[in-house]
C-alpha cells in the first residue's frame, strides 16, 4: 500500500459477497487506512465485480514539520465528546455521588470535607489509544500514519465520576433499553446502571421493553425499575427488558422520549443500535431537548472498533469451547472422525479465532476475514484427508460469516437490514461427507451448531466485572453532561468515545495480526488458497 496523507472516502463493493461497504467521511482516519490496507485480501475467487475505490485527498503534508501537530488536532476534534453545554447554557452543580460512603447514604459534596472530594476523574484526564510504536509498516499488525511509522500520540477521554454534574438527580427520569441480539452480561449492565443512578439520588428509572420497538408499540408499557427489581437479575442470562431487531423510526422514538420526559437514556446494543442512538442524540439536539444519550456496546462478536473487547465476548468464547471440546471427543472417539463446530460472527471471526486458540483442539479455523478454498490441492478438504491419514481425526471451527462466497446468495435481510447469511456450517458438513465418499475413504462427520447457547447464558466472572464498570461509567458519563457517547475499555483503561468513531466500520480480525498468526501456529493449518 502506498502511504497516503488522507483518505476521504473508500468504497468496497462485491455484490456476490458482502454487499457494499462504504467508509464515510466521518470515519476514523486509521480505520480507513486499515481497510485500504486490507483491500488486498478482500476480493475473493467467486467475487467477479470487486470495486475498490479510494478518494485520496492530500490533507496531510508530511514535509510539513508540523504535520503531527495537525494530525493530533484533527484527532482531538474527532474524539471530542459532545456535551450538553454545546447546546444549552447550563451550569454544573456539585456531584451527589459519594466515593466514600459505601453507597448507603447520598453525600452532598457541598458540605463534604476537601479530602472526600478527591478520587474523581477530571474532564481533562486522557488515556492513550495506541500503545505500540511500530518501527516499520511491515511489523505485524502495524497501523502507520506516515511512511516512517512515526509515533503519534492519540489520547481519548477517561471515563469515571466527575466532581461536577449537569443534572439534578431528584428531577431526573432515566430510561434503559436493550437492542439487537442477546449477549451475556446485559442484565449485569442494567443492574449496575440502576444501582449507580440510585446512588446519585435518581428516583425515576424505567425500562423500555423489547428494544427500540418499546418506544412506539402502544401495547408495551415502560417498566419501572429499582434496586429491588434488579438485585438478582445478573444470575440469569438474557435481558430483563427483552430485545428486538428492526422498527426504529428515530422521530417516533424521540417523540416518545419527549412524551415520557426522559432526561437520560442508556442504550445497550451493537453497531446498529449505536447508529440508532447517534441519530436519537442528533434529533434531541435538533429539538433542543436536554437529554443525555449514552451507549454501552453489546456484542458477542466483538466487532466494535477501538475497544480491547466488548462485554459478552469472553463468555461466548468460554461457552464455544464446550462445543469444541464435545466435537473433539466425538471426532477422537470415532473411526476417521471429523468434528465441525459453527460459531457466531457475522463479519468478524473473533469468537472462532479465540475459541480455537483457547481450546487448543482445533485443526482448521475458518473466519470471514480470511478467504479459503474447499477444493483443489490446497483446499480444506485435501487438508482434512491429510489429517485423517496422519492423526486419525480432525476438528474444524467455522465462523458463520466465513466462506459466504461459496454459498448462494438469498439477498434476504433481517428486520434491522442485516444480510441473512447462508449456512456455511451445513454446507461444509455436506461437502466433507461427499468428498470422503467420493475418494472412498470412510469418515464420520459430527456437526455441532451451538449458536444461541453461547449467547443466551449468564456472564462469566471476567465479563461480569467488565459489565459492572461499563454500567457505572455510563451513568457517570450522563451525569457529566455528555451525550452521543459510548463507554469502552481501551488498553485496560475505561474511556468515553463519540459514537461515530466506534461504528465507522465493523471491527475485524487483522490477517496480519499477531493473534491470527498465533491461531495459525496453534492449528497448524496451511493457507487454503
Ligand atoms: N443505521 C441505523 N439507524 C437507526 N437505527 C438503526 C440503524 N441500524 C440499525 N438500527 C436499529 O438498531 C436496532 C438494533 O440493530 P441490529 O439488529 O442491527 O443489532 P445490533 O445493535 O447491531 O446488535 P447485534 O450485535 O446483535 O447485531 C434495531 O432496532 C435497528 O432497527
Ligand atoms: O438470530 P439473531 O437474533 O438475528 O442473531 C444472530 C446474529 O447475532 C450476532 O451474534 C450478533 O449479535 C451475529 O453474529 C449473528 O449473525
Ligand atoms: Mg450488528
TrEMBL record:
Belongs to the phosphofructokinase type A (PFKA) family. PPi-dependent PFK group II subfamily. Atypical ATP-dependent clade 'X' sub-subfamily. Keywords: Allosteric enzyme, ATP-binding, Cytoplasm, Glycolysis, Kinase, Magnesium, Metal-binding, Nucleotide-binding, Transferase. GO terms for molecular function: 6-phosphofructokinase activity; ATP binding; metal ion binding. It comes from the Eukaryota. GO terms for cellular component: cytoplasm. This is ATP-dependent 6-phosphofructokinase. The lineage of its organism: Eukaryota, Viridiplantae, Streptophyta, Embryophyta, Tracheophyta. It comes from Nelumbo nucifera (Sacred lotus). Pfam families: PFK. Coiled coil: none annotated. It catalyses: beta-D-fructose 6-phosphate + ATP = beta-D-fructose 1,6-bisphosphate + ADP + H(+). ATP binds at residues 181, 245-246, 270-273. Substrate binds at residues 299-301, 344-346, 400, 452-455. Its cofactor is Mg(2+). The active site is at residue 301. Homotetramer. It is an enzyme of class 2 (transferase). Residues 174-476 form the Phosphofructokinase domain. The record marks 272 as: Important for substrate specificity. Its EC number is 2.7.1.11. GO terms for biological process: fructose 6-phosphate metabolic process. The gene is PFK.
Amino acid at each position: 500500500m502506498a502511504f497516503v496523507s488522507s483518505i476521504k472516502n473508500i468504497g468496497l463493493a462485491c455484490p456476490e459477497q458482502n454487499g457494499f461497504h462504504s467508509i464515510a467521511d466521518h470515519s476514523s482516519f486509521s480505520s480507513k487506512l486499515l481497510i485500504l490496507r486490507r483491500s488486498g485480501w478482500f476480493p475473493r475467487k467467486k467475487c467477479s465485480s470487486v470495486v475498490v475505490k479510494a478518494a485520496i485527498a492530500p490533507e496531510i503534508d508530511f514535509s510539513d514539520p508540523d504535520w503531527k501537530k495537525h494530525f493530533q488536532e484533527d484527532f482531538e476534534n474527532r474524539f471530542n465528546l459532545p456535551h450538553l453545554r454545546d447546546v444549552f447554557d447550563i451550569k454544573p452543580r456539585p456531584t451527589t455521588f459519594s466515593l466514600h460512603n459505601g453507597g448507603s447514604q447520598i453525600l452532598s459534596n457541598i458540605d463534604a470535607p476537601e479530602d472526600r472530594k478527591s478520587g474523581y476523574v477530571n474532564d481533562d484526564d486522557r488515556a492513550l489509544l495506541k500503545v505500540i510504536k511500530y518501527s516499520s509498516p511491515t511489523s505485524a499488525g502495524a497501523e502507520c500514519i506516515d511512511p516512517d511509522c512515526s509515533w503519534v500520540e492519540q489520547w481519548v477521554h477517561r471515563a469515571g465520576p466527575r466532581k461536577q454534574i449537569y443534572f439534578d438527580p431528584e428531577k431526573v427520569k432515566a430510561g434503559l433499553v436493550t437492542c439487537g441480539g442477546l449477549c451475556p452480561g446485559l442484565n449485569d449492565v442494567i443492574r449496575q446502571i440502576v444501582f449507580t443512578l440510585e446512588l446519585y439520588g435518581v428516583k425515576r428509572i424505567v425500562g423500555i421493553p423489547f428494544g427500540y420497538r418499546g418506544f412506539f408499540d402502544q401495547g408495551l408499557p415502560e417498566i419501572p425499575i429499582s434496586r429491588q427489581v434488579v438485585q438478582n437479575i445478573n444470575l440469569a442470562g438474557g435481558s430483563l427488558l427483552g430485545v428486538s431487531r428492526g422498527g426504529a423510526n428515530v422521530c417516533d422514538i424521540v417523540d416518545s422520549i419527549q412524551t415520557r420526559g426522559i432526561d437520560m437514556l442508556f442504550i445497550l446494543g451493537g453497531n446498529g443500535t449505536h447508529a440508532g442512538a447517534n441519530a436519537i442524540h442528533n434529533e434531541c439536539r435538533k429539538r433542543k431537548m436536554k437529554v443525555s444519550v449514552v451507549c454501552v456496546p453489546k456484542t458477542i462478536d466483538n466487532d466494535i472498533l477501538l475497544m480491547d473487547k466488548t462485554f459478552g465476548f469472553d463468555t461466548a468464547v468460554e461457552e464455544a469451547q464446550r462445543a469444541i471440546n464435545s466435537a473433539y471427543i466425538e471426532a477422537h472417539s470415532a473411526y476417521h472422525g471429523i468434528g465441525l463446530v459453527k460459531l457466531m460472527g457475522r463479519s468478524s471471526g473473533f469468537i472462532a479465532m479465540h475459541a480455537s486458540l483457547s481450546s487448543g483442539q482445533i485443526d482448521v479455523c475458518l473466519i470471514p476475514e480470511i478467504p479459503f478454498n474447499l477444493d483443489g490441492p490446497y483446499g480444506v478438504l485435501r487438508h482434512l484427508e491429510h489429517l485423517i491419514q496422519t492423526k486419525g481425526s480432525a476438528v474444524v471451527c467455522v465462523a458463520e460469516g466465513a466462506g459466504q462466497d461459496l454459498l448462494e446468495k438469498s439477498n434476504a435481510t433481517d428486520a434491522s437490514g442485516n444480510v441473512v447469511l447462508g449456512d456455511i456450517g451445513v454446507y461444509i458438513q455436506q461437502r466433507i461427507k461427499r468428498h470422503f465418499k467420493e475418494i472412498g475413504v470412510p469418515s464420520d462427520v459430527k456437526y455441532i451448531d451451538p449458536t444461541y447457547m453461547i449467547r443466551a447464558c449468564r456472564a462469566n466472572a471476567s465479563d461480569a466485572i467488565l459489565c459492572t464498570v461499563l454500567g457505572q461509567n455510563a451513568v457517570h458519563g450522563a451525569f457529566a453532561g455528555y451525550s452521543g457517547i459510548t463507554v469502552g475499555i481501551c488498553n485496560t483503561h475505561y474511556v468515553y468515545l463519540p459514537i461515530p468513531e466506534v461504528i465507522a466500520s465493523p471491527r475485524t480480525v487483522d490477517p496480519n495480526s499477531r493473534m491470527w498468526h498465533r491461531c495459525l501456529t496453534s492449528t497448524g493449518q496451511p493457507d487454503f488458497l
